[in-house]
Write a structure and sequence with these properties.
- With about 210 residues, this protein is an alpha/beta fold.
- It has a single domain, classed as 3-Layer(aba) Sandwich (Rossmann fold), CATH 3.40.50.150.
- Helix content is about 35%, strand content about 20%.
- It contains six helices and seven strands.
- A seven-stranded mixed sheet has the order 3-2-1-4-5-7-6.
- The chain is globular, with a radius of gyration of 16 Å.
């Protein structure tokens, strides 16, 4: 699909879901998707078989999720970044944000670095590491306003580990499907704030947790 055709499809898909995409954002999301599609032919980054579903999940879900961000210069850690969603679309929506993507697989990290370069993303870094290994770096402790994750099994132990990177009062954004309770099992210092709908066609949800001060 030609970039112009894809952009038209993206804007129409967004409009159908009640979203308005400014021209610059639509162009950025299109460029990201085209890069993802090219690399996906070489390495398995993500499923792109159904274009409408891919648009909804990879591009529009993160756009909706950014409504939870409280200011433009927010610092974000995205864990298990893979093909770059939700991290890169969120960065495109909020370009003043500071983004760190964490991805253990070297080939996927190479794609993420190429996306950062190709899209001209500033204040954006890629860590090729397991998130557990990053605990050894004191400068990352309580360094982020927001931590996002998708496609990672959410357990009490996992959340307790991840909250170490989040500032007191900061949030964890869990991108989730239609099944399961609104909130996972939690222990302090995390509490459930809200669960909101993302994309109606996918019945996807965003669960927002907060780190208690």
């Amino acid at each position: 699909m030609a970039p112009r055709d894809f952009r038209t499809r993206l804007v129409k898909r967004a409009s159908k879901g009640g979203l308005f995409l400014p021209d610059e954002l639509a162009a950025g999301l299109t460029a990201y998707y085209e890069l993802l599609a090219r690399w996906n032919q070489k390495i398995n980054l993500t499923a792109l078989d159904n274009p409408d579903e891919a648009i909804d999940r990879l591009l529009l879900e993160p756009v909706v999720a950014t409504k939870q961000l409280t200011r433009p210069d927010v610092s974000i850690m995205d864990v298990g970044s893979g093909g770059g969603s939700p991290a890169i679309p969120m960065k495109l929506v909020v370009p003043a944000s500071k983004l760190t993507m964490v991805e253990v697989k070297a080939r996927k990290s190479a794609f993420l670095r190429e996306a950062v370069r190709s899209l001209g993303l500033v204040q954006t870094t890629v860590e090729t590491s397991r998130y557990e290994e990053l605990l050894a770096r004191p400068e990352l402790h309580e360094a982020f306003d927001v931590l996002s994750l998708r496609a990672i099994r959410v357990e009490v132990r996992t959340l307790l580990t991840l909250q170490a990177f989040v500032k007191p009062g900061g949030m964890i954004l869990l991108f989730r499907g239609p099944t399961g309770p609104d909130s996972p099992e939690l222990v302090p210092p995390l509490r459930w704030l809200t669960t909101v709908a993302l994309i109606e066609a996918l019945q996807s949800r965003l669960t927002v947790l907060q780190k208690i001060r």
